[in-house]
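[Structure tokenization] protein backbone as discrete codes

[Encoding] learned vocabulary of local backbone shapes

[Begin record] amino acids and matching fold tokens:

___
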Amino acid sequence: MVSRVHVVGIPGSLREGSYTRATVKIALEGAREAGASTEHIDLRECALPFCRGGGDEDLEGDVQGLRERVKRAHGIVLGTPEYHGSYSGVLKNALDLMGFDEFENKVIGLVGVSGGRMGAHSAMSHLREVGRALHAWVVPTQAGVPRAWDVFDDEALTLEDEDLAKRVKSVGAEVTRYAKLHSVENARAFLDAWAAAQPNPGAEDR
């Protein structure tokens, strides 16, 4: 097992005062509470070209830097606002500039934000398909924040709905938990680690 799991969070929003960015940070807080080291990758600070599909953008801007930061991670939290029933173009472009080297066999967690009541369900479903295409392990738990304008404190960008905040944190915690389990090479160690892992955060409601 790795000595310490490292989890990165990538919010697909460039907007100032972004609820998506705040939500990803909450998920990373859950990862830290579960024992991971974390890194927030702010795409506003990355000079990324548009993916042209030919590999000629590999040496432009911060493409290599982004790839290296994601490669070092054992787990990845992807966050997106829902735009027209799917995830954001800025996140799509960042993902298109990466591939199997960054995502294959990694553990991914999903969080989404919407202005309406659906909580970015479609956007996260589409990201789940992307994770499968990249041979990543997308954890079952995901967290959507509906009507974000109504549940965030705009000044501090804190999520005032405690139940939602708990669920968002559980995504980061589950990414950490599965990344730890995924790093176990010995079957006996896997079973011992599984027995000691945190309980299913959704089971208490059943």
